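Internal ticket #5521
Category: modeling
Description: The requester needs a full-assembly model to guide mutagenesis choices. All entity lines are attached below as received. Residue total reported by intake: 689.
Assigned to: D.W.
Attached entities:
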Amino acid sequence: MSDAITMVEAINLALHSEMQRDDSVIVLGEDVGVNGGVFRATVGLRETFGIKRVLDTPLAETMIAGLSVGMAAQGLKPVAEIQFMGFIFPTMEQIICHAARLRHRTRGRLHCPMVLRVPFGGGIHAPEHHSESTEALFAHIPGLRVVIPSSPKRAYGLLLAAIRNPDPVIFMEPKRIYRLNAQTVEDNGEALPLDSCYTLREGADITLVSWGAMIKETLEAADLLAQQGVSCEVIDVVTLNPIDHETILASVAKTGRCVIIHEAPKSCAVGAEISATLGERGLLSLQAPVARVTGYDTIMPYYRMENHYLPNTADIVEAVTATLEFS
Amino acid sequence: METVFQAQISYNQFLSAAGTPLQALPEWAGKPDILVRYYRNMVQLRQLDNKIIALQRTGQMGTYASLLGAEAIEVVLGELMLSDDVLVPYYRNHGLQMLRGLPLADMLSYWGGDERGSASATMAQDFPNAVPIATQALHAAGVATAIKIRGEKRAVVTVCGDGATSKGDFLEALNVAGAWQLPVVFVVNNNQWAISVPRSLQSAAATLAQKAIGAGIRGEQVDGNDVIALHESVTEALKHAREGKGPTLIEAISYRLSDHTTADDATRYRSNEELKAAWEREPIKRLQTFLHTQGWWDEVQETAWQKEVAQIIQQGLDSFLQRPPQPVEDLIDYLYAELPDALKEQREQLIRNAQPGGNHHE
């Protein structure tokens, strides 16, 4: 057993681990080599695996995505880093029109086993364009998988799974909690499933559904509510495409109430999809409307005002209380 | 002030538009075998092109991007690429795809709206047609990166039109190919028109080949209607790639003698005079003149070949028309390696709707 490590260290560990196991894994991106990545997620890889497997690319995001498609079609497993979510948008054409579509449009003749790792989310006082949460854009794309870990252990196992998966995976890393907590992560090479929610805490009164960095506030709210005698079940969605609706439906069948918490703007977000599915398939078990605690439908602000934008523990407690009081 | 950098772009041409040599021909062109093959292949592509357009006009084919005027580029690349090279095509390379082994019925399937046209095992590692402009240039760079990492002696060829050179993907691909000295050949089929936008509005650059200079790679212009010049340029570029000497950009000057696609009407934006003048430079007639002069091709051979080609095309067409429809579940089954549970219900709905009595039964 190793010492406790943070999420970003767990990501680094998973990269080391899988590159050791599989020669076809290639890491590429801006500053990922000599510099070890701006968040240090790729530190040490170049020294261990050499310049043929850790590629410092020219500064061009579309190129990183398009190059990965070409490499993946050749049987390599590119793991590309896009430095921040705010810079991922030039890659959208390559992701939607090619990465997500290659298997389908060639009827399996070619496929695209690539991972795009991207730090996302607010709360670290970053420059403009560095704090967005646009997971819904990707979750909407058929042929993609979208994965968001929320702890070091799961980041390790989910990244292994993402790299081994034969289809393209957008691996979104909630950077606010990159170094928040440390856990002991055994480098056992065991991948986690890419189609399962995790029930982080069992409870009887209400189901809280969240992912990424908001898991922190969600668990804090559950703690506060427990002191008031409210028993919250907390579900970490983890895989936003495909979503494990069954786990959420089963939980709400038990609790009858649900609050969905995410950082992204409210409209057309993944929370809306979960809420709609609860309406379609869980209506009769609902004792109150599904509530959403989310960012506002506005631009993610520059850091002076990000605390006004980001949902907090009090927002969650308030929504839970209102949902419990509904009759 | 001192000059810190200078560059020039050369233009490669051997046969005049009238089919006469403009300079001493390379040794291989002193024999009929390759040149006659080029000619026969171009004649076949042109007849096929006419046939597909006729099929489209009668509702048997979807929107189709004609190869008219691109035949020389197609046949030369088809001749010189090896089977373990990788083609990363755009949507005007189906002649080249067939020369690389794609059965005509598969090619017709693609243009007939059926993804199985991109599934043929004969395509090996070649990419399917890129429809979004210039995106394929980056895939080619990625394939070339894989080849370079593995230390293989293979080349990648990607083709795009003149419009694509305005796009970031194209320039980013040239740039990384230069930075990493990738084994890739970028061929620009500069056919002068991107739908209705003429070459003059795409760029102030005097040549598109000079975009190579900004990326630090080899670049040259070649007469895209002259198979001999194309053969020389492509041979050299492929040799460079396979020997690890880096990428090349070839700007092949051609002319889109057709509409952009069958959904386009070029009379809306370009003059008859310009089109008429372009027909004077087209690739087939000039090679035919040259072959006649050399005594390597005559009217009897021409008639026999045209007849044979018609039969070949008819056979391919018959095979295409007899192809059973694809199973409707293909619409979902090839999305992921393993179908997510969340999609199983939609798959059942899709199948149910396609069955007799279903909402979408055909």
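Resolution: model delivered.
Comment from assignee: Chain B has two domains: 11-321, 328-362.
Ticket closed.
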